[in-house]
Amino acid sequence: MPVNFSTKDADFEAQFDALLNSKREMDEDVDKIVSDIIADVRKRGDAAVLDYTTKFDRLELTAETMRIGAEELAAAVDKCEPHVIEALKLAADRIEKFHAKTLPDNLDYRDEQGVRLGSRWTAVQAAGLYVPGGTAAYPSSVLMNAIPAKVAGVERLVMVVPTPDGVRNPLVLAAAHICGIDEVYAIGGAQAVAALAYGTETIEPVDKITGPGNAFVAAAKRRVFGQVGIDMIAGPSEILVVADHANDPDWIAMDLLSQAEHDTSAQSILITDDAGFATQVAQAVDKALETLPRTEIAGQSWRDHGAVIVVENMDEAVPLIDRIAPEHLELAVSDPDALSNKVTNAGAIFLGRYTPEAIGDYVAGPNHVLPTARSARFSSGLGVLDFMKRTTFVGCDAENLRAIGPAAVDLAVTEGLGAHARSVAIRLNLPVED
Ligand SMILES: NC(=O)c1ccc[n+]([C@@H]2O[C@H](COP(=O)([O-])OP(=O)(O)OC[C@H]3O[C@@H](n4cnc5c(N)ncnc54)[C@H](O)[C@@H]3O)[C@@H](O)[C@H]2O)c1
Ligand SMILES: N[C@H](CO)Cc1c[nH]c[nH+]1
Ligand SMILES: [Zn+2]
Fold it and tell me: How many Å lie between the centroid of ligand 1 and the Cα of residue 149?
């Protein structure tokens, strides 16, 4: 059974803290396994990647066959149902349009002293895109990774995707082809992240690794940060649904299960102001679980990590939402804007009874690669800016260097940095007193 408690309970704070601190992904065992895998890939390169692929994905590859060639990617389009390709293209188009609107502007101006100042955005040169594939194939995650990278102008896109038992999902490959990715490797988990970060004999390292994955992928991204950039920790999925009694319990149950079915470590939470409605939803979840294809995974996630919290009124929900900082926040209430405007920490917000989170997973337009494990307190969903970096520039001439330079000389002297002081003073014929 999921945990079920109310703000009226005397031990509410203790129960809420236990929920916040429950470890769903980053336990020490996972971190140890991942650090060993990364060290091994650094030492043995391709051989280690191939060994772990045999171990975890149960398939024998070679340095040559781990790459999925451009012809296979193109041929995959014909293996998919035309209406599904159309759906993929509709999704791609909407995602592209949304992300294009988020391209940043450069800055170039002269300030009051006439000093030229500005900043300029450029794309990272090579990006590694992690597409999950352990327990389900995620063609949508190909789009969500690749499209912002393309919009940003990344030159080299390298996609990795595990293919357990050697099963290559045609729609994943078709999505790569449609997005114009031509360097794809059939590898996953920590070994793929390590290969992208450090390189192997076959795979050139990248500058930035993005994309979602399970606990092993999330831990590996944490570990390689610094060697490469990462987008964020996009680990096992989460949903927090805030729903009043005016909802259909079956709808809300399915929304909770839509994220539970991703992973046994996924987390679904319901906050409601009606205890009777909470019971109806819990019953509806049990009923829905009988019909779902991934009932084992969804059921385990719901039992082990699910939670139902009853509040006295919806205003009480706001600080709880901010403390949970969910990946997805669904506001199934009559005035979603009123609640939404008060929330600070959430990866993505879904407004109103007719905006199920799943619409954002596929076709809405904003990215579905989102921060999990409370990291929405300080990070955002994947976007164009994740594939770009900002360079600032400054241009002085003799006149405006004379206006602002003496202050720099003074500050350099107080920091005891004589060469700094002199590199400015020498241009202005100023004396320096250390
Ligand atoms: N936060 C987001 O934005 C977002 C988006 C989509 C998916 N997801 C999450 O992505 C995840 C997909 O998980 P998945 O497992 O299906 O695919 P995955 O590709 O993330 O992981 C599969 C890989 O995990 C590694 N692995 C599995 N068991 C291991 C073990 N015992 N030791 C070491 N490595 C091991 C293997 O290398 C395997 O190839 C889910 O948790 C889902 O919730 C998150
Ligand atoms: N809900 C996931 C992000 O947590 C993304 C996804 C992909 N396919 C379906 N859903
Ligand atoms: Zn999903």
Answer: 22
